[in-house]
Amino acid sequence: MELDDLMNARHVHLSDSWEAPTVFAGAVRDDQIALTKLLQDRPDIAVVDPVRHIADDLFEFRNPDKIDNTAARRKFLDAAIHDGSEWGTWVYFPWKRAIVRFPNPDDHWGLRTFRNRNLITASESEVLRAATVAVFGLSVGSNIVDQCVQTGIGEKIVMGDTDTVSPTNLNRIRAAMSDVGLPKVVVQARKVSESNPFVEQVHLERGYTPSSDTVLDEHRPDVIVDEVDDVVSKARIRRYAQSRGIPVVMVADLADKAVIDVERHDQGNVTPFLGRLSQQEFEMLCEGGGTEKERRQALVKIVGARHISPKMLASVMQIGTSLAGFPQLGSAATAGGALASVVIREIILDRKMRSGHYVFSPKRILDLQRDMSIPATAATMWNFRTYVRR
């Protein structure tokens, strides 16, 4: 048989949906019975059991004053091993066809946030844990979700995106080639679950739509993150947030820069987009109006043309000719995700995080070489403005 025939014979279509992982408490009899039946019925399911590593870290978490006590550590590990399958929690991930041992939910949370202390105190960690975060747009937004989960922010996450993962997304989304073609919501949901299966997830596969308001009202996020491309959706997200008093965070990755907008609608009368659009322009977008030219101009105003590098300006004008899409760097997306998670943390902890337009510029921080000479920059800006107005 030729190679192509062999490959075609084994070609599989991976599931493009997400199922919440099934959690089995090791010490609960009914869960033991259900887990036994699952393994008997499904011989293809693998079991992953890092019990020694979990127990070792858990010993240090519970006994920081006995880290060097070898006898106490051995006794703790032996007790965990002796309990067998009753120790901890077992989680079945359908898309991996695997059952993985975890500690119980509280211990898992403790281990995941152990190294945050005392940079984040135990009481602050509990506040962050109880939060709900909504993220719309899972390109840069996926990095924000990643950082929030790593930090321990949110026992509930609302995620919305309409797009699927493509090969060109892989420079800024933590995904594998085997994820290409899958909905971004599904890929991100699986990552969240495998990191912390106890996080509740709410998915909006159509992204932000007028019907999303009902879902948001039900789950009442503490912060809404706007990472959508559509400027109409951006406006409508802010209209909703303003009416409910919910802060909005937006990150734009512009070449090496990460530009962060913070709108504290929970602290009084904050103008949507921090006043960079007129009220008339804002209302026009909320109603779905505006020509393509007007929407493009609005987007440039929102981001701020002064933050766009000459290379980026020149690149935008080549979209549809020599470029097929908007250029983005994974390093900027990752930096933006990290900074956004800090902003979200400070908002949830009710610290002094003011509304404003914040710019993270590695070139300025590291004193790197500029892209072009001043005359070339001015010429490029002129050409860009002509492009936007056409």
From TrEMBL:
Residues 117-254 form the THIF-type NAD/FAD binding fold domain. InterPro entries: ThiF/MoeB/HesA, ThiF_NAD_FAD-bd, Ubiquitin-activating_enz. This is THIF-type NAD/FAD binding fold domain-containing protein. GO terms for molecular function: tRNA threonylcarbamoyladenosine dehydratase; ubiquitin-like modifier activating enzyme activity. GO terms for biological process: cyclic threonylcarbamoyladenosine biosynthetic process. Pfam families: ThiF (PF00899).
